[in-house]
Design a protein that fits this description.
With 793 residues, the protein is mostly helical. It contains 42 helices and no strands.
């Protein structure tokens, strides 16, 4: 049936269809590399389950796989399956890329958007053919598709990757209609309910296919108007014509029951008052209607609040609008040719029922929720315009001026929408651009302001972010993520005390989500406070075992602290959950062979000869006290990047630990030269210079004014500065003036001990104790030296 239909279209139609397709491709050409945003983080980017295609059966049994954020773990296995397939495709092209990249996801979504448009054409064409006999029907249907494809408001759905739930489920609804209308064999087997169920597993509004099919049958197959639906004389006809829909009701009810059964108790819709949400939605629906024609105030996260009373003018205006629209549907249903208008209006309202009625969501308004409802408006408005055009068809065909005006108006409308969409794609490009736009358009939304602050933190604009976060907390004082980000910004501003206060506040408010525990643990690990971090990481994984970063960090902590038994257990558990994850598999080998940090870094540089891999190795050597090896690793860095400030700074620190002060100054200065804002290197250079000047000045004064006390003071300063031979030299100078100085012998002992000259150290220590048998420091030193000598033999 479809093939015959395609053959019947003339060349002009295919040319126009080609231009429509090119137009939508050009319009979205700048969106394919747009970032992940908002809920993409916990459903895709941080969701470990999508990284293994064999997990797909698990998605249908366990809703916790949908997201690493427990309150968002709704039962949407089809959605998680789509994300998993896209991730798998990405890995085929980028096998070494572990973290998801948005390009493949955007390509997949855009392809389904194009297919949706194709299905929509066949559906609208069938609607128009059922009530209007005219060869222009195909052009009207194509115009409806073009308007929908290019509609600026739809950019909110196509750019927001996790909102593919809206686009894909809508495509399944359209496929269900196309099967019902064009495929008699499939229709007789009720397979259109199967595609509805597939759509449901991606997002629940697919079940709205059932009432839409009901009105389609009665409007276009039976030719009933709205008042005739309520006429008792038509009851039997209506029943006989639609009784098979009970199959869809049963199928829909069954999958809905299954979804609720498998939805974990952690999931929350987010809303609070059913009544306040309900009375708010009429004005929200009016906003949605306006955006179809003039989407000038789209926002990724709006600041609309619930209404509190039915006397609010916005409720009254919204209800008046709904009343007028329903009256329009009633009137246009009376005539056969205007019935698509009535159907489109009813489609708009039916499609909004799941999100704009009794079920309260945390946001009363979301601009991406209109993707499915706008199909109804595209049908209704196109039909209304088309009927006007048909009245003047003869004039248009014969008068080039009227024809030019019509085509010009259509082109202008589509071009305006395409331009708006193209610009909206630019807004969605990065976190910074998206949330700057949202914070301007939704100044009362603390979350939008917080996300803008977070983006500014990525640009190192910490002071600016601080002010935004303070304002965000004023707006949303109970929002845990506000305090997480405030804590992270305080860390950037070196205010660690305030950071810890905010981390703890985040845990207090977000006790049922993993992120507050994870981010605080990450902060603690950065300060080597591993014992405090471990229980926090365990709690994060307890709340969401798919929160992969908590697992990675805890594996690393166990490995770095050589907690081998704990590492064995965690590796076993992690491999059982994610058997092919490369990051986890690294720790299988580490646990099995009990590899130290240095062992691991040495292995890494054999396959990954990058500046960063050698920097990591140099740090491992430094932490083990292997300073020449640290320097050698840094020099490998400099072969690859002669201006690498981290390498110069690590060399400086190593020379400082080796007591080579002049070289330490030289390399610290190079680190600052190549990165003038390198705070650690700046501080190191300042401290080393000040220390050197102080010691050299004291040494000169001691030589000018010789005394046991002065020489002993310089000896101690050299010891603290890690210059052990000089420490011994000045201690001996003190002994020449005071042969019975136990302190001088102890300095010689301590310096030789640091250089592992155990025999010389033991002799000096014994001499100190002969002079002063109660010298506690010397007693401790002697005990340590004798232990080391015993261990060496």
């Amino acid at each position: 049936m479809v093939k015959e239909l395609l053959k019947s279209f003339d060349r002009k139609f295919y040319v126009l269809a080609f231009f429509a397709l090119v137009a939508v491709c050009i319009t979205y050409s700048n969106h394919f590399h747009n970032d992940f945003h908002f809920d993409d983080s916990h459903t895709i980017y941080n969701n470990m389950y999508i990284r293994e295609i064999k997990n797909i059966p698990l998605f249908f049994k366990d809703a916790r796989t949908t997201s690493s954020f427990p309150p968002n773990q709704a039962y949407r296995p089809g959605l998680t399956t789509l994300n998993t397939i896209d991730y798998w495709i990405m890995r085929q092209f980028l096998p070494k890329q572990l973290m998801p990249k948005p390009f493949v996801f955007h390509c997949s979504i855009f392809i389904s958007y194009v297919l949706l448009g194709v299905l929509l054409f066949f559906f609208v064409y069938a609607l128009f053919n059922s009530v209007i006999e005219n060869e222009w029907n195909k052009y009207a249907a194509l115009f409806a598709v073009s308007w929908y494809w290019l509609n600026t408001a739809n950019a909110e759905t196509i750019n927001y990757i996790i909102a593919r739930s809206d686009s894909f489920s809508t495509m399944m609804i359209m496929l269900s209609f196309v099967i019902y209308i064009y495929m008699p064999k499939w229709r007789n087997r009720y397979l259109y309910f199967g595609t509805m169920v597939i759509g449901f597993f991606v997002k629940e509004p697919s079940l709205m296919f059932i009432p839409l099919l009901f009105f389609y049958i009665l409007f276009f197959e039976k030719g009933f108007s709205i008042p005739e639906l309520f006429d008792s004389k038509n009851g039997k006809i209506i029943y006989n014509s639609t009784k098979f829909i009970i199959i869809g009701v049963i199928a829909g009810g069954l999958v809905f029951w299954i979804s609720r059964k498998l939805t974990p108790p952690t999931w929350i819709s987010g809303g609070m008052s059913h009544f306040r949400y309900l009375i708010t939605e009429p004005f929200v629906i009016l906003h949605y209607f306006k955006n179809f024609f003039f989407a000038n105030d789209l926002s990724a996260d709006t600041d609309w609040k619930e209404l509190t009373t039915m006397t609010d003018p916005r409720f009254i205006v919204g209800m008046a609008f709904i009343g007028a629209m329903l009256f329009a549907a009633y009137k246009t249903s009376l005539k056969k040719e205007t019935r698509p208008i009535a159907f489109g209006i009813l489609w708009f309202f039916i499609a909004l029922l799941p999100t704009s009625s009794l079920i309260p969501f945390s946001e009363v308004l979301n601009d991406h929720r209109t993707f499915f409802p706008y199909i109804g408006l595209a049908i209704a408005v196109t039909c209304a315009v088309y009927l006007v055009v048909l009245k003047y068809k003869e004039t248009i065909e014969t008068n080039s001026t009227y024809r030019s005006l019509l085509f010009g108006a259509m082109a202008l409308l589509l071009a305006a929408n395409a331009y708006g969409t193209y610009q909206r794609n630019i807004v969605w490009r990065t976190e910074l651009s998206l949330w700057e736009d949202a914070s301007i358009k939704s100044p009362g939304n603390g979350r939008a302001i917080m996300n803008y602050a977070l983006a500014l933190m990525g640009e190192k604009k910490y002071e600016e972010a601080e002010g935004l976060l303070k304002h965000g907390i004023e707006l949303m004082p109970q929002y845990a993520y506000m305090y997480i980000n405030m804590a992270m910004n305080k860390v950037n501003l070196k205010d660690t005390a305030a950071a810890e206060v905010n981390f703890k506040k985040a845990i207090e408010l977000g006790f049922n989500t993993p992120d507050p525990f994870y981010f605080y643990a990450q902060y603690l690990c950065g300060r080597k406070r591993f014992d405090e971090a471990i229980p926090l990481l365990k709690q994060a994984m307890k709340l969401s075992d798919g929160h992969i970063y908590s697992r990675y960090v805890l594996l690393n902590v166990y490995a770095d602290k050589y907690m081998w038994d704990d590492l064995d257990q965690l590796v076993k558990e992690s491999v059982a959950l994610f058997p092919k994850d490369p990051e986890i598999l690294k720790y299988v080998d580490i646990a099995k062979n009990r590899k130290t940090i240095t062992d691991r870094e040495k292995e890494k540089v054999t396959t990954e000869k990058t500046p960063q891999s050698f920097i990591d190795l140099s740090l491992a050597y430094f932490n083990e006290g292997k300073y020449p090896e640290c320097i050698a690793a840094c020099k490998e860095v400099l072969k690859l990047d002669s201006t690498n400030a981290d390498a110069y700074n690590n060399i400086s620190c190593s020379y400082n630990q080796m007591g080579e002060w002049d070289k330490a100054v030289e390399y610290a200065a190079l680190a600052v030269k190549y990165r003038p804002t390198f705070e650690v290197a700046i501080r190191n250079l300042k401290n080393i210079k000040e220390r050197n000047e102080s010691v050299y000045k004291s040494a000169a004064m001691a030589k000018a004014n010789p005394s046991p006390e002065n020489f002993l003071q310089v000896s101690t300063m050299f010891f603290n500065g890690l210059r052990y031979p000089d420490c011994i030299e000045y201690a001996r100078m003190a002994l020449k003036l005071s042969p019975n100085s136990a302190e001088a012998y102890n300095n010689i002992c301590a310096a030789n001990s640091k250089m592992k000259n155990w025999d010389e150290a033991e002799k000096a220590c014994q001499q100190a104790l002969r002079i002063n048998p109660n010298f506690a420091t010397a007693q401790t030193n002697l005990k340590y030296i004798q232990q080391q000598k015993a261990a060496a033999h």
